[in-house]
Amino acid sequence: MPNNVFYYLRHTETRFDEAIPASQWVLSERGQKQAEDLVHMEIFSNIDVIITSGEMKAFHTAMPLAKKLNLHIKQYTELNELHRDDEEYLTGNEYRRYVNRTLSKIQNPVGKWESGINALTRFSKKIDEINSNYSDENILVVSHGLVINLYFCQLLENFDEVFRRWSLTTFCDYGVVKNAKVIEDIVIE
């Protein structure tokens, strides 16, 4: 059985741009600085493998650390955020309402968004595949707030407070999982 340790990191701060889909947003100046600061965090000093979603904000979050550790970044679209690009731009309050509805009833898609269960299923399946391809490695997965929180709720067997958990998660938050058990929660209360 693989004995990998997974470090799940939510990407750094992005620059909001209502002219383009959210999946194409890039890091803000603060987000670029946050990514550079990750190289000084002791918890990431022993990473063996770096994997990101296919979204550039996740990839650019991992770049400074990959450079420092001399590691190649592997990207997988299955680790992307819940698909929401077909929906028109939403204001901050509208977005929170969509997220609340999506995370409250994960079986049902909201508007033109992917359902929470579909996002969780593809994310979980890819993590299982990654886990089976490595043994005794420290694997950093840089992804997104919705899918990471759904995944942690699945591991914790508690979807009751997934919206509250997502609300507490900020850019650069991370959690640690080993053998499908949460060692360090991504949500700090």
Number of DSSP strand runs: 6
Continuous helix count: 6
Mean pLDDT: 95
CATH topology: Rossmann fold
Named CATH architecture: 3-Layer(aba) Sandwich
Strand order of the largest sheet: 3-2-4-1-5-6
The major beta sheet can be summarized as: 6 strands, mixed
Share of β-strand residues: 15-25%
Question: Which descriptor suits the 3D outline?
Answer: globular
Instruction: Encode the helix/strand succession as letters.
Output: EHEHEHHEHHEE
**Rg calc:** 16 Å
Structural class: alpha/beta
Number of domains: 1
Distance between the termini: 33 Å
CATH superfamily: Phosphoglycerate mutase-like
pLDDT < 50 runs, ≥5 residues: none
Helix content: 25-40%
CATH class: Alpha Beta
